[in-house]
Amino acid sequence: MVETVTDVLDDSEVRRILAVMAHPDDVDFGAAGTVAGWTDRGIEVVYLIVTDGDAGGFDDAVTRADMAVLRRDEQRAAAKCVGVTDVRFLGYPDGRVEATLDLRRDIARVIRQVRPDRVLMPSPERNYERIYPSHPDHRAVGSAALDAVYPDARNPYAFPELLSAEGLDAWTAREVWISGGPAVNHHVDMTDQYDRKVNALRAHASQTGHMGDGLHDMLRGWLSANATAAGLPGGRLAEAFQVVDTA
Hints:
The chain has eight helices and eight strands; from the N terminus they run ββαβαβαβααββαααβ.
């Protein structure tokens, strides 16, 4: 692992990580190699996917209801490729996510249930250099998830029904990792986990099945660029994040 910030939690201090993402496959495009490294080190990782991805895919013969079921199954299969078995869905409509109080409460609820040391999420900011990570659902989920980390999940008086009706005590996540944003201060060398990342993405057949070898070309292009930016030797591959101390 290559660090360009000095206050990243050591993985030995991390017991649980919650990844909050907008769509099935988001976590795999952005961070599957890093996730595989975490689970290899014995860290429990939980996925919270806000939508079912029902607006995705390329087959007009598949109904949107069937696509939602298919994409849930694909995400569960992809998660297994990188050692994740706990995958949760909120069922928000794909393409219409907004950073509402309801979404903040739903994410804060899961933070209090899982009690993670680290939360992985998409960026709430638009990335003009690479537009694809800046899908409006990604930005809405990033905004709501960051608000759920601070102040919602840690404040016992925010959404008090989570405590009074559901018995969920306040919880402070110590660190946030942001994927896909315009600011990067941390890289993870995931060369040894690359094949598992590819397997996870191949599991999303409704989204990647048409790509063939183009998937490898795309991944190696941007992962190699990340590694170069991190100062890693030639041939290495890296995923990029902005790490924020939220303790």
